[in-house]
Amino acid sequence: MLVTEKKHIYENLQSLFGAACQTDASLARYTAARVGGQADALLVVNSVEALAQAAQQLWELELPFRVLGGGSNVLVSDNGVRGVVLLNRAREIEFDITSDPPTVWAGSGANFGSLARRAVTHSLSGLEWAAGIPGTVGGAVFGNAGAHGGDVAGNFLMAEILHQNGTRKTYSVGEMGFEYRSSRLKREKIDVVVLAARFTLVHGDPAVIQQKMDDYAEFRRRTQPPGASMGSMFKNPPNDFAGRLIEAAGLKGTRVGNAEISSLHANFFVNHGEASASDIYALISRAHKIVMQKFGIALELEIELLGDFLPLD
Known about the structure:
The protein is of the alpha+beta class.
């Protein structure tokens, strides 16, 4: 695309969306790893309806876009992302404590960990495992997020999905095709937008619920490094753990620039300040290659890559 044509397109976007749209916007501040280049345009949406309207307008304009939530499970290229990044701040949450079972509906931009913590104020149990998850509801549904033996699939009731032709469909748990850290949307790269989701809960004792969340939080503090990271880098292979394999390969504490494979948990890659996406990806490539050489296991990324990256060996 010619520079003048590109400038004209994104100026038109700003006229459509006003202050909600920024051009040539740095994405690093919106990612948990604090790295990444610029998006051609960054469009902030603050409700489920605004998300649906923006996505539909971008499809009609034939402008490529990606949805970014909490930025906790993505690595953005140093060269940035071409097209539009929709920054999802659709954070509406509604609890229904009278239904049987009780449920909670949440916009896809709501923080999933915060949602779990709010449940305890309604004496509702079931999402304690998610209290420490930093990402959004949409990202959690897309990747079937999980921790401490629980996952999205175990609480999922339905999701509201927007399709490119403008239709909204309700996806059941069966239609989502959940697998370990995956869903049909993720595997098939379906061009849709998750607008909201509803989860089932159960009534419980708030003191017991809070204690379980506190226990999980203490476990995370002991076993996961603080600082800027994306969470678990690789999926656990069947009957093993990615962190164990990376550590056994002798890579714990390995650094490239200011990025490090954590010396506390080898499946966490930490930005100690001023690291680049290229530094982190060099560590990803090294871990993938050496684990394959030593153990014959091809680790699969749990995070998503945004922008241009070379394929892993």
